[in-house]
Amino acid sequence: MTKKNDYFKTICDVSRAFGTTSDKDQLLGLIVESAVETMKGKAACLWLADEEKSEAMPVAQIGLSKKYFQASIHADKIVSILEKEGYFHARDATSDSRLEEHAVKKAEGIASILIVPVMVKGKVIGVLSLYTSKPRNFSKDEIDFLTSLAEQGGIAIEHARLLETIRENTRLFHDLAASINSSLDVKSIFQTLAADIAKGLGVKASSVLIINKEKQTLELVASYGLSEKYLDRGPLSVGKSMAKTIQGKSVVIKDATTDKRVQHREEKKEEGIVSILSVPIKAKEEVIGALRLYCGVPRDFTEDEVMLVTALALQGGVAIQNASMFLMLEEDMKDLKDDMWSHRSWF
């Protein structure tokens, strides 16, 4: 009963901390410290999946040496077990065939490991690991307690992600609005947009394409993260290249190397492009081009992400309208001056 009281008190303490700080690092640090203290472990670490590198990266830990983290951690096997069983336990971590780097674990003084998933919206995004210095089995209560701490970690990570998303979206809109307000150089504005949106959404690359009505092709006006070889791959046909975008609809391509809607599939494979989001750029109600994001790993773009990219693409359309109106105004002013000089010649 004492242990259960300890678990309850720890969960309450962690929950209380969520109400006093939004600092993700502080909250995750509290979670790993609580795991070690309450479960009498040697060490604990919260790992997050890095999809680009197919590795797990430590984001909070206590009790482990720097040398331990020099060995890369591939958690694919562990994640599949977690998805099926809900937890992973190795009584002897130095010999368990499901684990890697046995010598590193032995040198670190690790005997047993208990691993539970860190989940956000039903998806495993990382793991919380508890390490002991002596061989140990874990009770259901202990597994449930560590799982509860991992859930708290998932909440902290998702909360921090949402806050960062709000800040980043605000910054993207501010930077684009500032560019539109301070310059009529459309190429410069789109180059800023391409770079900012790729960095902001954490994608591999981006491009801005404008329709050439005479040739019925899409012409590149700005890009970020794409090689010269890929950019020189040849023209894109308006009719073939994701026709729905040209019709004014957003398109998500999960695998650009096999999807028949995509042109130059082999070149995309060589470039390391997997998923694509393509949204229309409009001037008033007319589609004049497309803004595209490219990912190096399979990605399901959320509805919020699609809405953000669509909104930014619309701002790009506004930039083109502004530049066009300015050129028209310049032409009107020139005509007006010519008329004034012709009238003066009467006197």
Give descriptors for this structure.
single chain; 347 residues; alpha+beta; Beta-Lactamase; 2 domains; five-stranded antiparallel β-sheet; 10 helices; elongated; disordered C terminus; GAF; GAF-like_dom_sf
Report on this model:
With 347 residues, this protein is of the alpha+beta class. It has 2 domains: 2-161, GAF domain (Beta-Lactamase), CATH 3.30.450; 183-341, GAF domain (Beta-Lactamase), CATH 3.30.450.40. 48% of the residues lie in helices and 22% in strands. The protein has helices at 2-18, 24-39, 76-85, 102-108, 140-182, 186-201, 228-231, 243-246, 265-271, 303-344; strands at residues 43-50, 55-62, 88-90, 112-120, 123-132, 205-212, 217-224, 236-237, 251-253, 275-283, 286-295. The strands form 2 sheets. Strands 8-7-6-11-10-9 form a 6-stranded antiparallel β-sheet. It has a 5-stranded antiparallel β-sheet with strand order 2-1-5-4-3. Strand 1 (43-50) and strand 2 (55-62) form a beta hairpin. Helix 1 (2-18) packs parallel to helix 5, helix 2 runs antiparallel to helix 5 (140-182) and helix 5 packs antiparallel against helix 6. It is elongated and about 75 Å long. The N and C termini lie far apart (108 Å).
